[in-house]
């Protein structure tokens, strides 16, 4: 069974985000970039399935600028077998990414797509659902446990909901998006980092896949949220109620 794992290059989660002075976007020059944390979980789950003999190949895919090759090499160092970069300078939106991934699925023929539930830069939480719709595959989002039965050609997914846990069973092929509690991603060892440099990494263009990635939405302006005011102490309950009425306007 082949597993496809889409990954995204984002600003590292430890970096304090800064908006560009002209308000056209977020500052990325000389900023540390890394793999989207939810995608790391997806890579880890795919690699574990391969280690258990359930999967035969793990294919990592990313779409974006040439620098995304570094992120793909990280996925290869974590255990992916090969990688594909869909290289483009266009600002990709969820539907465009889903269409690109659908084209890769048609080309590669994976039986399972495991991907992060969302990217930490835009928090869209749309690509996995759109991909499943384009492929007409069953989907399970926010997975906290995945059990694959290759004999029955089905997958059982446990997901966290407001009321507790929900268990879904789907036939393969399917799309799964990962939540934080699915697993704990491993660290890439130095020998695996060196081996990753020799693993195959293919580069294709959106045009070669027959996909138009022209943005449908245009960002007019990006600005920082207003700074929060400092807290104050009140002398008694009466003063607290007065402030709630006059300032917070909650009573």
Characterization of the model:
With 251 residues, the protein is an alpha/beta fold. Helix content is 27%, strand content 26%. The protein has helices at 37-51, 68-78, 94-108, 127-135, 190-196, 237-248; strands at residues 2-6, 9-11, 33-35, 57-64, 82-87, 112-116, 139-149, 154-161, 164-171, 174-178, 201-204. The chain has one domain (2-248): HUPs (Rossmann fold), CATH 3.40.50.620. The strands form 2 sheets. The chain has a 9-stranded mixed β-sheet, with helices on both faces. The N and C termini lie far apart (59 Å).
Give me a quick take on this structure.
By secondary structure, the chain is of the alpha/beta class. The chain is 27% helix and 26% strand.
Overall geometric form: globular
Q: What is the percent of helical residues?
A: 25-40%
Q: What structural class do you assign from the helix and strand content?
A: alpha/beta
List low-pLDDT spans.
none
Mean pLDDT: 92
Radius of gyration: 21 Å
Strand numbers in spatial order across the main sheet = 9-8-7-10-6-1-4-5-11
The name of the CATH architecture is: 3-Layer(aba) Sandwich
Task: Work out the number of β strands.
Answer: 11
Main sheet specs = 9 strands, mixed
Number of domains: 1
How much beta, percentage-wise?
25-35%
Number of helices: 6
User: For the terminal residues, how far apart are their CA atoms?
Assistant: 59 Å
CATH class: Alpha Beta
CATH superfamily: HUPs
CATH fold-level assignment: Rossmann fold
Q: How do the SSEs run, as a string of H and E?
A: EEEHEHEHEHEEEEHEH
């Amino acid at each position: 069974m082949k597993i496809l794992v889409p990954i995204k290059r984002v600003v590292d989660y430890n970096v304090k985000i800064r908006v560009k002075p002209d308000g056209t976007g977020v500052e990325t020059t000389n900023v540390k970039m890394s793999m989207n944390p939810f995608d790391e979980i997806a890579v880890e789950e795919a690699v574990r399935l391969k280690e258990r003999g359930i999967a035969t190949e793990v294919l990592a895919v990313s779409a974006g600028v040439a620098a995304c090759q570094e992120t793909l090499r990280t996925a290869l160092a974590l255990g992916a077998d090969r990688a594909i970069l869909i290289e483009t300078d266009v600002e990709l939106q969820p539907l465009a990414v889903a269409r690109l991934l659908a084209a890769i699925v048609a080309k590669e023929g994976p039986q399972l797509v495991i991907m992060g539930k969302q990217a930490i830069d835009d928090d869209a939480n749309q690509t996995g659902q759109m991909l499943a719709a384009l492929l007409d595959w069953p989907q399970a989002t926010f997975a906290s446990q995945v059990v694959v039965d290759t004999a029955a050609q089905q997958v059982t997914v446990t997901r966290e909901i407001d009321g507790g846990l929900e268990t879904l069973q789907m036939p393969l092929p399917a799309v799964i998006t990962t939540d934080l509690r699915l697993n704990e991603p491993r660290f890439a060892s130095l020998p695996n980092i060196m081996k990753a440099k020799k693993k195959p990494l293919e580069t294709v263009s959106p045009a070669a896949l027959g996909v138009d990635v022209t943005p449908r939405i245009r960002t007019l302006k990006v600005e920082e949220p207003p700074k929060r005011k400092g807290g104050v102490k009140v002398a008694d309950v009466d003063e607290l109620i007065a402030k709630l009425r006059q300032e917070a306007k909650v009573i």
